[in-house]
Amino acid sequence: MKTATTFRNYARDDVRPAVRECYREMRARQTVDYVARMHDKYLTYDRPLGLWEALAALDDFVDLSDPDMDLPNVQHLLQTAAAMRADDCPDWMQLVGLVHDLGKVLYLWGSDADGTGLDSQWGLVGDTFVVGCALPDSLIFPEFNHLNPDMADPRYNTLSGVYAQNCGLDACTVAWGHDEYLYQVLAHHADNRLPEAGMVMIRYHSLYAWHERGAWAELTNARDDRNRDWVRQFNRYDLYTKSAEVHDLAAAKAYFGPIIDKYLGTEPIRF
User: Core-most of 91, 101, 127, 132, by most CB within 10 Å?
Assistant: First the structure.
Protein backbone atom coordinates (compact mmCIF):
# COMPACT_ATOMS: atom_id res chain seq x y z
CA MET A 1 0.00 0.00 0.00
CA LYS A 2 1.21 3.51 -0.77
CA THR A 3 2.09 5.94 2.01
CA ALA A 4 1.47 9.68 1.76
CA THR A 5 5.11 10.34 0.85
CA THR A 6 4.97 8.07 -2.19
CA PHE A 7 2.12 9.94 -3.89
CA ARG A 8 3.17 12.47 -6.56
CA ASN A 9 6.71 11.09 -6.55
CA TYR A 10 7.70 11.78 -10.15
CA ALA A 11 11.19 10.32 -9.68
CA ARG A 12 9.97 6.78 -8.98
CA ASP A 13 11.36 4.09 -11.28
CA ASP A 14 7.87 2.91 -12.20
CA VAL A 15 6.58 6.31 -13.37
CA ARG A 16 5.48 5.99 -16.99
CA PRO A 17 7.62 7.88 -19.59
CA ALA A 18 4.35 9.39 -20.85
CA VAL A 19 4.07 11.36 -17.59
CA ARG A 20 7.35 13.18 -18.12
CA GLU A 21 6.61 13.75 -21.81
CA CYS A 22 3.21 15.22 -21.00
CA TYR A 23 4.84 17.74 -18.65
CA ARG A 24 7.55 18.58 -21.16
CA GLU A 25 5.00 19.42 -23.82
CA MET A 26 2.85 21.33 -21.36
CA ARG A 27 5.73 23.53 -20.28
CA ALA A 28 6.91 24.12 -23.84
CA ARG A 29 3.50 24.92 -25.33
CA GLN A 30 1.38 26.57 -22.64
CA THR A 31 2.06 30.21 -23.51
CA VAL A 32 -0.02 33.36 -23.01
CA ASP A 33 -1.07 33.19 -26.65
CA TYR A 34 -2.00 29.50 -26.47
CA VAL A 35 -4.15 29.96 -23.37
CA ALA A 36 -6.01 32.88 -24.96
CA ARG A 37 -6.71 30.78 -28.06
CA MET A 38 -8.06 27.91 -25.96
CA HIS A 39 -10.41 30.26 -24.11
CA ASP A 40 -11.74 31.54 -27.44
CA LYS A 41 -12.02 28.05 -28.91
CA TYR A 42 -13.58 26.09 -26.08
CA LEU A 43 -15.45 28.48 -23.78
CA THR A 44 -18.50 28.50 -26.03
CA TYR A 45 -21.08 26.89 -23.69
CA ASP A 46 -22.93 25.33 -26.61
CA ARG A 47 -22.45 21.61 -25.91
CA PRO A 48 -25.23 20.39 -23.56
CA LEU A 49 -24.30 17.23 -21.68
CA GLY A 50 -25.98 15.55 -18.75
CA LEU A 51 -23.73 15.19 -15.72
CA TRP A 52 -24.02 11.40 -15.61
CA GLU A 53 -23.21 11.24 -19.33
CA ALA A 54 -20.14 13.36 -18.70
CA LEU A 55 -19.02 11.10 -15.87
CA ALA A 56 -19.54 8.02 -18.04
CA ALA A 57 -17.38 9.61 -20.76
CA LEU A 58 -14.46 9.67 -18.32
CA ASP A 59 -14.61 5.88 -18.22
CA ASP A 60 -12.69 6.11 -21.52
CA PHE A 61 -10.15 8.68 -20.28
CA VAL A 62 -6.87 7.81 -18.53
CA ASP A 63 -4.87 10.82 -17.31
CA LEU A 64 -1.41 10.60 -18.91
CA SER A 65 0.11 13.00 -16.36
CA ASP A 66 -0.83 11.03 -13.24
CA PRO A 67 2.04 9.00 -11.72
CA ASP A 68 -0.24 7.35 -9.17
CA MET A 69 -3.16 5.95 -11.14
CA ASP A 70 -3.77 4.31 -14.49
CA LEU A 71 -7.47 3.53 -14.07
CA PRO A 72 -10.07 5.51 -16.06
CA ASN A 73 -10.51 8.96 -14.56
CA VAL A 74 -14.09 8.31 -13.49
CA GLN A 75 -12.70 5.89 -10.90
CA HIS A 76 -10.60 8.65 -9.35
CA LEU A 77 -13.72 10.82 -9.06
CA LEU A 78 -15.72 8.02 -7.46
CA GLN A 79 -12.88 7.22 -5.04
CA THR A 80 -12.55 10.86 -4.01
CA ALA A 81 -16.28 11.31 -3.46
CA ALA A 82 -16.56 8.03 -1.55
CA ALA A 83 -13.79 9.04 0.87
CA MET A 84 -15.47 12.39 1.48
CA ARG A 85 -18.77 10.65 2.10
CA ALA A 86 -17.11 8.26 4.56
CA ASP A 87 -15.71 11.26 6.46
CA ASP A 88 -19.12 12.95 6.46
CA CYS A 89 -17.89 16.00 4.55
CA PRO A 90 -20.60 18.54 3.59
CA ASP A 91 -22.73 17.29 0.73
CA TRP A 92 -21.55 20.10 -1.59
CA MET A 93 -17.92 19.08 -0.97
CA GLN A 94 -18.72 15.45 -1.77
CA LEU A 95 -20.21 16.69 -5.04
CA VAL A 96 -17.05 18.67 -5.79
CA GLY A 97 -15.11 15.44 -5.23
CA LEU A 98 -17.36 13.69 -7.74
CA VAL A 99 -17.09 16.35 -10.46
CA HIS A 100 -13.76 18.13 -9.93
CA ASP A 101 -12.09 16.54 -12.98
CA LEU A 102 -15.17 16.69 -15.17
CA GLY A 103 -13.52 19.29 -17.40
CA LYS A 104 -11.56 16.44 -18.93
CA VAL A 105 -14.65 15.64 -21.03
CA LEU A 106 -13.16 18.31 -23.29
CA TYR A 107 -11.37 15.40 -24.97
CA LEU A 108 -14.70 14.50 -26.62
CA TRP A 109 -14.53 17.62 -28.82
CA GLY A 110 -10.90 18.55 -28.26
CA SER A 111 -7.90 18.04 -30.50
CA ASP A 112 -4.60 16.21 -30.14
CA ALA A 113 -3.06 19.12 -32.07
CA ASP A 114 -3.74 21.53 -29.22
CA GLY A 115 -3.21 19.01 -26.42
CA THR A 116 -6.88 18.51 -25.58
CA GLY A 117 -7.39 15.07 -27.12
CA LEU A 118 -7.26 11.52 -25.86
CA ASP A 119 -3.71 10.77 -27.00
CA SER A 120 -2.21 14.25 -26.49
CA GLN A 121 -3.29 15.75 -23.16
CA TRP A 122 -0.78 18.51 -22.35
CA GLY A 123 -3.54 21.14 -22.64
CA LEU A 124 -5.93 19.25 -20.40
CA VAL A 125 -4.23 17.52 -17.44
CA GLY A 126 -1.40 17.90 -14.95
CA ASP A 127 -0.24 20.60 -12.56
CA THR A 128 -1.08 24.09 -13.76
CA PHE A 129 0.86 27.37 -13.49
CA VAL A 130 0.32 31.08 -13.98
CA VAL A 131 1.16 32.29 -17.49
CA GLY A 132 2.32 35.84 -18.21
CA CYS A 133 5.08 35.82 -15.57
CA ALA A 134 8.25 33.87 -14.74
CA LEU A 135 7.85 30.13 -14.23
CA PRO A 136 8.99 29.16 -10.70
CA ASP A 137 11.48 26.41 -9.94
CA SER A 138 8.89 24.88 -7.60
CA LEU A 139 6.99 23.46 -10.58
CA ILE A 140 7.15 19.74 -11.32
CA PHE A 141 10.05 19.13 -13.76
CA PRO A 142 11.47 22.70 -13.54
CA GLU A 143 14.13 21.68 -16.06
CA PHE A 144 11.48 22.17 -18.73
CA ASN A 145 10.75 25.80 -17.83
CA HIS A 146 13.28 27.19 -20.33
CA LEU A 147 11.40 25.50 -23.18
CA ASN A 148 8.51 27.95 -22.81
CA PRO A 149 8.87 30.73 -25.43
CA ASP A 150 7.38 33.28 -23.02
CA MET A 151 10.45 32.94 -20.83
CA ALA A 152 12.46 34.71 -23.56
CA ASP A 153 9.93 37.56 -23.71
CA PRO A 154 10.66 40.50 -21.35
CA ARG A 155 6.92 41.12 -20.97
CA TYR A 156 6.44 37.73 -19.34
CA ASN A 157 9.71 36.57 -17.77
CA THR A 158 9.79 38.69 -14.59
CA LEU A 159 8.34 37.70 -11.21
CA SER A 160 5.20 39.80 -11.67
CA GLY A 161 5.16 39.75 -15.47
CA VAL A 162 2.06 41.47 -16.85
CA TYR A 163 0.31 41.57 -13.46
CA ALA A 164 0.03 44.16 -10.72
CA GLN A 165 1.71 43.26 -7.43
CA ASN A 166 -0.60 41.23 -5.15
CA CYS A 167 -3.47 41.45 -7.63
CA GLY A 168 -4.73 38.02 -6.57
CA LEU A 169 -4.95 34.77 -8.51
CA ASP A 170 -8.43 35.56 -9.81
CA ALA A 171 -6.86 38.44 -11.77
CA CYS A 172 -4.21 36.15 -13.26
CA THR A 173 -4.39 33.72 -16.17
CA VAL A 174 -3.60 30.10 -15.34
CA ALA A 175 -2.41 27.49 -17.85
CA TRP A 176 -5.28 25.95 -19.78
CA GLY A 177 -6.65 22.68 -18.48
CA HIS A 178 -9.62 20.88 -16.99
CA ASP A 179 -9.71 23.05 -13.84
CA GLU A 180 -10.31 26.39 -15.54
CA TYR A 181 -12.55 24.79 -18.16
CA LEU A 182 -14.93 23.26 -15.62
CA TYR A 183 -14.82 26.37 -13.42
CA GLN A 184 -15.91 28.59 -16.31
CA VAL A 185 -18.55 26.10 -17.47
CA LEU A 186 -20.11 25.96 -13.99
CA ALA A 187 -19.78 29.73 -13.51
CA HIS A 188 -21.96 30.10 -16.62
CA HIS A 189 -24.41 27.35 -15.58
CA ALA A 190 -27.61 29.09 -14.47
CA ASP A 191 -28.54 26.37 -11.97
CA ASN A 192 -25.16 26.25 -10.23
CA ARG A 193 -25.57 26.69 -6.48
CA LEU A 194 -22.20 25.38 -5.31
CA PRO A 195 -20.73 27.59 -2.56
CA GLU A 196 -17.73 29.78 -3.28
CA ALA A 197 -15.40 27.34 -1.52
CA GLY A 198 -16.44 24.56 -3.89
CA MET A 199 -15.80 26.71 -6.94
CA VAL A 200 -12.36 27.64 -5.61
CA MET A 201 -11.55 23.95 -5.07
CA ILE A 202 -12.49 23.21 -8.68
CA ARG A 203 -10.55 26.15 -10.12
CA TYR A 204 -7.25 25.81 -8.28
CA HIS A 205 -6.83 22.19 -7.18
CA SER A 206 -4.09 21.58 -9.79
CA LEU A 207 -2.13 24.75 -8.97
CA TYR A 208 0.17 22.76 -6.68
CA ALA A 209 3.14 25.14 -6.77
CA TRP A 210 0.86 27.75 -5.16
CA HIS A 211 -1.15 25.82 -2.60
CA GLU A 212 1.63 23.41 -1.57
CA ARG A 213 4.85 25.38 -2.16
CA GLY A 214 3.97 29.07 -1.90
CA ALA A 215 4.76 30.12 -5.47
CA TRP A 216 3.61 33.49 -6.89
CA ALA A 217 3.80 35.31 -3.55
CA GLU A 218 4.29 38.52 -5.56
CA LEU A 219 0.81 38.06 -7.04
CA THR A 220 -1.30 36.50 -4.31
CA ASN A 221 -3.26 38.36 -1.63
CA ALA A 222 -5.28 37.77 1.54
CA ARG A 223 -8.19 36.30 -0.41
CA ASP A 224 -5.83 33.69 -1.85
CA ASP A 225 -4.60 32.83 1.64
CA ARG A 226 -8.17 31.92 2.60
CA ASN A 227 -8.75 30.08 -0.67
CA ARG A 228 -5.58 28.04 -0.15
CA ASP A 229 -7.01 26.60 3.07
CA TRP A 230 -10.08 25.45 1.16
CA VAL A 231 -8.02 23.87 -1.62
CA ARG A 232 -5.80 22.08 0.89
CA GLN A 233 -8.87 20.61 2.59
CA PHE A 234 -10.01 19.29 -0.76
CA ASN A 235 -6.62 18.03 -1.92
CA ARG A 236 -6.26 15.68 1.03
CA TYR A 237 -8.99 13.65 -0.68
CA ASP A 238 -8.03 14.36 -4.28
CA LEU A 239 -4.51 13.06 -3.70
CA TYR A 240 -4.54 10.39 -1.01
CA THR A 241 -7.59 8.38 -2.10
CA LYS A 242 -6.08 7.05 -5.33
CA SER A 243 -5.99 3.26 -5.35
CA ALA A 244 -6.78 0.19 -7.44
CA GLU A 245 -10.30 0.01 -5.98
CA VAL A 246 -13.02 0.10 -8.66
CA HIS A 247 -16.42 1.66 -7.98
CA ASP A 248 -19.71 1.23 -9.84
CA LEU A 249 -20.84 4.52 -11.41
CA ALA A 250 -24.44 3.35 -11.66
CA ALA A 251 -24.50 2.50 -7.95
CA ALA A 252 -23.49 6.08 -7.09
CA LYS A 253 -26.60 7.56 -8.70
CA ALA A 254 -29.01 6.78 -5.87
CA TYR A 255 -26.92 8.70 -3.33
CA PHE A 256 -25.50 11.52 -5.46
CA GLY A 257 -28.54 12.12 -7.68
CA PRO A 258 -30.39 14.30 -5.12
CA ILE A 259 -27.17 16.18 -4.25
CA ILE A 260 -26.56 16.94 -7.92
CA ASP A 261 -30.13 18.21 -8.30
CA LYS A 262 -29.72 20.37 -5.18
CA TYR A 263 -26.56 22.16 -6.32
CA LEU A 264 -26.52 21.86 -10.12
CA GLY A 265 -30.18 21.41 -11.03
CA THR A 266 -31.66 18.92 -13.43
CA GLU A 267 -30.86 20.55 -16.78
CA PRO A 268 -27.84 19.47 -18.87
CA ILE A 269 -24.66 21.46 -18.33
CA ARG A 270 -23.53 23.44 -21.37
CA PHE A 271 -19.83 22.78 -21.93
Answer: 101
